[in-house]
Write a structure and sequence with these properties.
The chain is of the alpha+beta class. The protein is globular, with a radius of gyration of 26 Å. The protein has 21 helices and 23 strands. Helices cover 36% and strands 18% of the residues. Strands 12, 13, 14, 15, 16, 17, 18, 19 and 20 form a 9-stranded antiparallel sheet that branches. Strands 7-3-2-11-21 form a 5-stranded parallel sheet, covered by helices on one side. The longest helix is centred in the C-terminal third of the chain and has 23 residues. Among the domains are: 139 residues, Elongation Factor Tu (Ef-tu), domain 3 (Beta Barrel), CATH 2.40.30.260; 94 residues, tRNA uridine 5-carboxymethylaminomethyl modification enzyme MnmG/GidA (Arc Repressor Mutant, subunit A), CATH 1.10.10.1800; 54 residues, GidA associated domain, C-terminal subdomain (DNA polymerase, domain 1). Strand 9 and strand 10 form a beta hairpin. Helix 12 crosses helix 17.
Length: 623
Amino acid sequence: MELKFDVIVVGAGHAGSEAATASAKLGAKTCLVTMDMNKIAQMSCNPAVGGIAKGQIVREIDALGGHMGEVTDQTAIQFRMLNRSKGPAMWSPRAQCDRGKFIWAWREILENTENLSIWQDQVKELLVEDGHVTGVYTYLDVTLKARCVVITAGTFLNGLMHIGRTKLPGGRCAEPASLCLTESITRHGIAAGRMKTGTPVRIDGRSIHFDEMERQPGETDFHKFSFMGEQRTLPQLPCWITYTNPAVHERLRQGLPDSPLYNGQIQSIGPRYCPSIETKLVTFSEREQHQLFLEPEGTNTQEYYLNGFSSSLPIDVQLEALKLIPAFRDIRIYRPGYAIEYDFFDPTQLRHSLESKLVDGLFLAGQVNGTTGYEEAAGQGLVAGVNAALKCGGSEPFIMHRDESYIGVLIDDLVTKGVDEPYRMFTSRAEYRILLRQDDADARLTERSHRINLATTERLNHWLKKKQIIEEIETFCREYSVKASYINPVMESLGSTPLEKGCKLIDLIARPQLSMISLAEHLPKFAAIIDKIKERKEEIIEAAEVRMKYSGYIRREREIADKMQRLENIRIRGRFDYESLQSISTEGRQKLKRIDPETLAQASRIPGVSPSDINVLLVLLRR
């Protein structure tokens, strides 16, 4: 049997779901292939979305017209804005989600997306003719033909799970591994490697002594992930905090000889920033306790996720160690933690569109590119799906730059620097993070996304209305004068230094002790401007206030980004035979040849390419 499409997406995780909907929205006839329709967008590890820098990615996905943000809001059972004590460039939304409802919310979207079909099957082989992808072949002996294929297989490629000395093939617990697809991809010259990740024990809530833990409630203010839609509707549940102790550590150390991480059973590299409990014991041997977060899996289940206790130790070691924590002394578990090894492909063999440099029409997204995290996967998936559809239509690829989005930073890091461990996004990876705040993702991306027909006209108008109100507020604040004699008593009551002379309202808003709301209480004309906002009032006030308070920083960073953009506009791919450039260092020649950068700016970010190498290229370009 043979079926024909424009785009095929292999794997229905977070990357695949975003890729398939994005491709279909752009008009490409799309097929999403998944092993199990009941596990679509499964949260394989933590039932949470967002976090430091990751929350910004989800806001960007939403601003572009993707769905992770709205699904998170629909299924959130606890929301928090992290890093509130720092500047707004660091604020990061995070939500615990109902795992089961998350799957079904995504499935409803997929099943009702025009141009999108779902096929439940497992892909066995990638079909390639003369360097061009032509489709895939499945275990049900079905040939799916397409002009572009997007691989988003997560941890399933030759997946191998470890619990102590026990090894089980699988993509995740109780699900089969994909055993043939890697070989059918690497035979075309695409390099593969192995990585590992892990997940902790799942606990029966009926066996937990909650009264012996610290309660961590969520937040109920206006913040959410999607710029569209309603506020969270599910009951908001608390998380809980507890700690390991020396007795726990001693029992875990006794099990280290049977740990696949330390007995040679696992050779691949795991995520540095999400270490297993046994890695914490070895790396931080002086610590007497480690913090653990107990997180609910949903509103209608007793299952809890123990964040901070990822482990591949034998089952008995995990269980006995946990029972030494007072709140867990009577613990019952649903399943133990485990580690999983899986195949990934060298992302430096990809273009910024996430299309392979070696196989025309083949796109890769998610953990198969060496990343970790639902959010990083979803961002890549959206970009890959968009570009697969654009390629089918003969259009130029959709590329985001480092000053435009965290997704742009993520993809540029992958294709320029590659990975030697699972890549996780942090705010520190973005040199323009003041420009990439969670509050302004719609300002950065929605209009551009609408131009390629990904963001809907409704979403565009939603943003344009917000933009107009923000600009009206800023204009008023720049033009409205405040007398010192009138406002000084207010300033003193709010802990701010009195004025020596009058000033514009925007200068007062720039002060850290003052806010738009506190000033509006004493300035009737300003209060009238604020009162005119009827919808999304708090969101708009925050966006306007951040822009005014940090306008100097934003302007300066914009100038720096614009200067770097000049190098981004100097295209060098195909203009040099790097092997013949003896004036460039040996390492520089090797790296430039292997990665074949698109622009001079990308070349400058390649590890091993020195500033003097870039100067040589500039001189040659002038000639």
